[in-house]
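Let's do one together. I've listed all components of the complex below, 494 residues spread over two lines.
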Amino acid sequence: MIGMLPTLAEASRTSLSRKPALFALLLVFVALNTTGALAQQHLSKRYPVRSNVRVELKNISGTITVESWNRDEVKLSATMESPAANVSPRQTADGLIVDVMADNRGRNDIGDVNFKLQVPVNSSVDLETKRGQITVSNIRGGLVRAHVSSEGDIELYGITASQVFAQNLIGNIFFDGQFSRGGTYQFQSGKGEISIRIPSDSAFSLVASTPTRKIALGPFWNDGFKSLGDGRKYVGDVGDGRSSVMVTTFQGSITFLRK
Amino acid sequence: MNCDKCQDLISDFLDGSISHQDQSYLSAHLEECLSCGEVRDDLQSIVGFCRTQRGQYEAPPNEKALWLRIRNMIEAGASVATPAPAGSRRGFWNNWTARSWELSFPQLAAMAAAIVLIVSLSTAVGLRRWQSGAVDGKFQGSAQNGLSVGSIDVRNRISQQQQLISYWNQRVEYNKARWNPQMRETFDRNLAVIDQAVNDSFDSLSKNPHDEVSEEMLNTALNEKLSLLKEFAEL
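Okay, and this is what the predicted structure of the assembly comes out as:
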């Protein structure tokens, strides 16, 4: 037995030394595969666009973060949990479309895809995900739409868009911004707190409903407000009611805060 | 914006080819008008279904059996036609074309009178139906404004919505097996939240059938449920 050991080691050494090319090939193959997998997990692209571009993003699962910058350019970064996930942004005459749903039709599970977008400050953003948090900061374009089909918080900071739609089922909604004259603002949650922080001189027409009766209008309360259904719904104008605001939550509170 | 104008624009709205101004007017109207909201939802389901299927529709449960039955029926029809004697095989078309079409004046007059009678009757029936439809629309409009809330009307609307929900529920169940466990849990958890809202609104309505806030909440919750099912059905 002992006498056999050097023979075996020698044999294996001989075998390796006989096939150096094969061994090197194997190493290259492993290295290429590893690099490929890593490249699949992260995507970063830049698109030259006009200043009032429209960006549409339809995700399945994962976070979406949108920030503005002072460039006529969209930078899209995506981190994909699964190497099988495919993200193929499409630039159109109107702007940029990213549809993870369509790009991965027929694939079973692609895991989370987390997006970070940097867009011109006057962009319109239309964001959808089945699950995951959406955060949008400092957008002054025509539209900000954040739609979470199931659960995920929505946080909108420094928004002065004329149309804002924020909707989720489980999760909080936070809006910090201004209501534009003639604008439309809708916030709806199934089970979550909705907080709206606006300047004290804001003027809007409000319809706020929640069966929990937790509606705090704070500094925006006035005697013109009409309470319906024993405090489950408030309807009324603040100032000249120049923009339309609708807030609904089934199991949560509605709070208005002054900036 | 009135309902007619709104319903004219809904199709363009769903296609995304509507101006921003029209979109804001339409959105405002849809928030207030339940009947237009229902039209929008119905159209959206149809468009969504067609988009999801992309021209490929589900085969019947036993496709081979269906084709076999069709073939059998065709063959049976052919075998019945085959043994018929040559003389009796003159078809309807042959008889029709071979016939002499010389009509007398009274025959022509009778035919013209019959045509006038049929056209008048069908116009009258059509007008009556159209008017009753308009009345229904007005009734729905008043109901959603809270002027007349009939529990039967509410039940009808709920029943219609439940049918849609049941359809989308089936599609979700069909696709659910493909989801990962995390997605299934998320869906179930969210559906439970919506069901809770629906049940709470039902409870309030059963205590006070004229409670407009509960009726609104119920409508919103049912729409939300439908929307959740539709969105997860495409996964």
